[in-house]
Amino acid sequence: MTDVPFGVLLSGGLDSSLVAAVTARYLAGTKAAKQWGAKLHSFCVGLKGTPDLKAGREVADFLGTVHHEFQFTIQDGIDAIEDVIYHTETYDVTTIRAATPMFLMSRKIKSSGVKWVISGEGSDEIFGGYLYFHKAPNKEEFHQETCRKIKALHRYDCLRANKSTYAWGLEARVPFLDKDFIKVAMDIDPEYKMIKHEEGRIEKWILRKAFDDEENPYLPKHILYRQKEQFSDGVGYGWIDGIKDHAAKHVTDRMMLNASHIFPFNTPLTKEAYYYRMIFERFFPQNSARLTVPGGASVACSTEKAIEWDASWSSNLDPSGRAAFGVHNSAYENQVNSVAKTVEPEKIIPKMEISNLGVAIQS
Q1: What percent of the chain has pLDDT over 90?
Q2: What mean pLDDT is predicted for residues 176-200?
Q3: Does domain 6-324 fall into CATH 3.40.50.620?
Q4: What is the pLDDT of residues 92-138, one digit of tens each?
Q5: Which residue ranges does the record assign to the Asparagine synthetase domain (predicted)?
Q6: Sequence ranges of the domains in the chain
Q7: Which of 45, 137, 188, 209 is deepest in the core (most CB within 10 A)?
């Protein structure tokens, strides 16, 4: 239902591609189609030649959408970081990494006359789509982690999608987070969501199978079964590597050694995190502001609790999907912790206690 021009965000990943496929399939014959045209407009952002641009273009061609690609450079992203931190009001590393290209794309989308877009946010939280879910020891742990992720959406992905778009007056809508759909998805026995290599089941297998229609396919097979790429990775691996290099030029080893004294709350463990924190504190120096940002260790977007699933992860606490060693096809080559070797992580950041959510498993 809309009385203004709209489109879909299409990264070429499973979630955004499914949203685009369903929208394109049911757009014809609607009031919106009569008013704005039966051709769906899709939007994608990335560095030149990156995974999302290539996959997004393939899906757009398959669906027949009017596709708009926005290429940005690492310098474009670096130049926008201060604005991104101001508008998203966070110093969380994952959020800023992903919000920056989304912020740049939103400006382009709004300038084209589109007022709102449909996005695939929430699917990974509901179905356990992040690569670290490969290490879930059992269905109870798997389900508890999805519940923790859903309850934290307003501090991470929904915060990013909401604020990086509304910074330009663009609205993002998230069908995966429809309450009725969440109820259906979370009532499924988590056994069917778990990754089982011996059975050929990858992340979000149940969602992929639901749309695996041989007679009237929603998506090309290789897109339907494409490995999970976090948005900040899919726009180009060079993006994260570039901002790490940029942060290293502005944050010295000595600054890292004193990090626990300068930032006793949510002490940054990496130079990139320290760099974001300096900018955040300049815009929002109040203690009440810094307390709104979540903390704790994370690997490949996990909660701190899920790090217990694999002891090797504690040596490389990076929120990028490439930190999921043995899972991601392009995992980091070396398990190197970016914290200075002379600094002990336990002394930098206090351990967070995550209470038992007590979520019942329903079959």
Answers
A1: 69
A2: 95
A3: yes
A4: 999 999 999 999 999 999 999 999 999 999 999 999 999 899 999 99
A5: 1-139
A6: 6-324
A7: 45
Is a pLDDT exceeding 80 seen at residue 352?
no
Residue among 56, 54, 43, 150 at smallest CA distance from 106: 43
Cβ–Cβ < 8 Å for 69, 56: yes
Closest by CA to 172, choosing from 233, 120, 214, is 120
Edge-to-edge strands of the sheet including 6-9?
Answer: 66-71, 41-46, 6-9, 116-118, 171-173
User: Is 90 exceeded by the pLDDT of residue 342?
Assistant: no
User: Rg (Cα) of the chain, in Å, rounded?
Assistant: 20
The CB-side HSE value for 321 (13 A sphere, CA atoms) comes to 23
Nearest to 171 by CA among 158, 152, 182: 158
Tokens of 143: 């389900």
With contact defined as beta carbons under 8 Å apart, do 101 and 45 qualify?
yes
**Looking at this protein, which amino acid is placed at residue 254?**
R
CB 64 within 8 A of CB 24: yes
Q: Is the dihedral of CA 161, 102, 21, 3 positive or negative?
A: positive
Could you tell me if 330 and 337 are in contact, meaning their C-beta atoms sit under 8 angstroms apart? no
Q: How far is CA 83 from the centre of its chain?
A: 19
DSSP code of residue 304: T
Phi/psi of residue 8, each to 5°? -130, 145
- The residues near 63 (Cβ < 8 Å, ≥ 6 apart) are 20, 21, 24, 40, 42
Please check the confidence at residue 340 and state whether its pLDDT lies above 70.
no
Name the H helices within the chain.
14-27, 31-36, 51-63, 74-88, 93-111, 123-127, 139-151, 157-166, 179-187, 205-210, 221-224, 231-234, 237-250, 253-257, 259-262, 271-283, 287-290, 345-348
